[in-house]
Amino acid sequence: MAPQLTPDQYAALGRDLDALRQRVLADLGEADRAYILDIVKIQRALEVAGRGLLFLGFLPPAWLAGVGALSLSKILDNMEIGHNVMHGQYDWMRDPALNSRMFEWDTVAPAENWKHSHNYVHHTYTNIIGKDRDIGYGVLRIDPAQKWNPYYLGNPVYAALLAVFFQWGVMLHDLEAEKLASGEKKWSETAAERRRMWHKGVKQVLKDYALFPALSGPLFLPTLLGNMTANLARNLWAFAIIFCGHFPTGVESFTEEETADETRGQWYYRQMLGSANITGSPLFHILSGNLSHQIEHHLFPDIPARRYPMIAPEVRAICAKYGLPYNTGGLAKQLGSVFGKIVRLALPDRLTRAWSGTVETDRARRAA
């Protein structure tokens, strides 16, 4: 379990990480520009190839290759391009196509809504119970501090459905359905968000499930099925990467009380303990949007993600310097622990007390 640092140690931790951040920002340049432009070219080429091959859908190898290429295109657009561009990681390039205020991605979730729920709410209040709505996405019990009720017996089913329909879950996230159900928020207050959802959702559905299938003429159904499969692949991949970066065993949550008036160093401390990494090959990291380095991303969300593998050894050394854990592991290990947690937390607390008590005891010790 992570130690509680002294005020001087928190201050020193903040200085160490601020210095690392400034050093990376000062070094940004042509290599970073060339990288993201190359990724965009590859993504567009994969989309063109995928959609072209689907027009040959009467040949099974062509259909499979088309689905594969289109799936990779959607994954790159979602993870390494969309997510990172909308964090402002490439605003310094002054390229309108890669500007966080103007970019729109190939998913039903409107960029403006997502930037509020993710960039602001999640990255400001990371893993603070009652503030970070990404804890369970308003659907799951993913932390023992969330009060159990019989609804959570369906936790594994809700998780499976969220994985399959992940882009729709992300789209609906900003409605804050749990607040609407409790009366804390009025339906009329969501008018702007709903308008953006409607416009973006209709455009995406028409593009993937009407326009491109129609353009394929007699191959309407194979093309429709191909687009559906590519969207499913993107949804499952995004769900797996995001959940492995936020919810495996060892990731800690926090209360509003213990994070009140936190310093810069304490904010960094919370990001490091509230995130986890996934080991893998360079290609794996690219396809994950480098969110396989979730610890580095939570520390520095506006630094180009290609830099995360480069600075990871230094971040790990800083963790060791202050006696802090650096939670990392393979995809199978992290995903297995996430689903183990989802199943365990579906059950009443009396059946999982030994596991949840460890987490709660550590939280209480930190707050003391």
From TrEMBL:
* Gene Ontology biological-process entries: lipid metabolic process
Name the source's superkingdom.
Bacteria
Query: What do the Gene Ontology cellular component annotations say?
Result: membrane
The signal sequence is none
Boundaries of every Fatty acid desaturase domain copy: 62-328
A GO molecular-function descriptor: oxidoreductase activity, acting on paired donors, with oxidation of a pair of donors resulting in the reduction of molecular oxygen to two molecules of water
Tell me which PANTHER family the record gives: ACYL-COA DELTA-9-DESATURASE, DESB, FATTY ACID DESATURASE 2
Name of protein: Fatty acid desaturase
What organism does the UniProt record list as the source? Actinokineospora fastidiosa
